[in-house]
Fold this protein.
Amino acid sequence: MTTTSRTPVTVLGLGAMGGALAAAFLAGGHPTTVWNRSAGKDIELVAAGAARADSVRAAVTAGELVVVVLLDHASVHETLDPVADALAGRAVVNLTSTAPEDARELARWAAGHGIDYLDGGIMAVPDMIGRPGSSILYSGSRPIFDTHRPTLELLGAAEYFGDDAGIASLYDFALLAGMYIMFAGFQHGAAMVRSAGGSAEDFGARAAAWFSAVTSTLPSQGRVIDSGDYSRPLQDLRFTKKALDAIVRSGRDAGVSLDVLRPVQALVDRQIADGYGAEATERMYEGLAGPRTGR
């Protein structure tokens, strides 16, 4: 297949992630047009063969597939609203970090203007784009996903979550929530170790091995949570409370802020106060989640 037979792609937004996406499309042989609000971020891409657009309208009319990677939900509207007429009939993939309800709002907006809309959540950092380990979660227009999947897979593994445009970002943000809490836990531990002169880098190597081992239990924890039966604990909430109380005391003695651990301790304490101390530690989930719905 020659380069000219490949789908023309437009990338709106050339921050670190947008630049990485545009480079991946170019490497895959797609004619790629780029636009950024501020000048200067497209120099390397243009040198590599990208076409520079001087306006959003010129950019979107150049591409069959328009990929949007902007700052936030408001900036997507600021950029796309004035060119809605030019986007009609085109495929728009929004990879801006967008809350689920905002993604749904954008899907409704797009439908009102005759624009086919697919939302996505990027599970990668810019350096990972186009490499093993990069993945992007998608929801919204199935025709866009099916038609352009080979192009989208230049960026990373592509997984479709259904026609509800908000589901991909829900999963994206749920995964990121776990990541940020894990990072905060690591930083709390590194602060504890520093009180004894330990290196955060050395502690990081230990933590990476430990986290890798314990996170392998997450699917089995998920099965317990899905069952709603916490009556056969591997570790009950009373045991977990004893451990957390000791960890909190150790952190306090080391002069470390308890901002990370206090909410977890409070969650366990509430479960025990409600009479669930003999149940599995996974029951903490019930203190976080809304009512169960059918699967």
Observations:
- The chain has a mean pLDDT of 95.
- The first strand starts at residue 9 and ends at 12.
- Strands lie at 9-12, 32-35, 51-52, 65-68, 91-94, 116-123, 135-140, 157-160.
- DSSP finds twelve helices and eight strands in the chain.
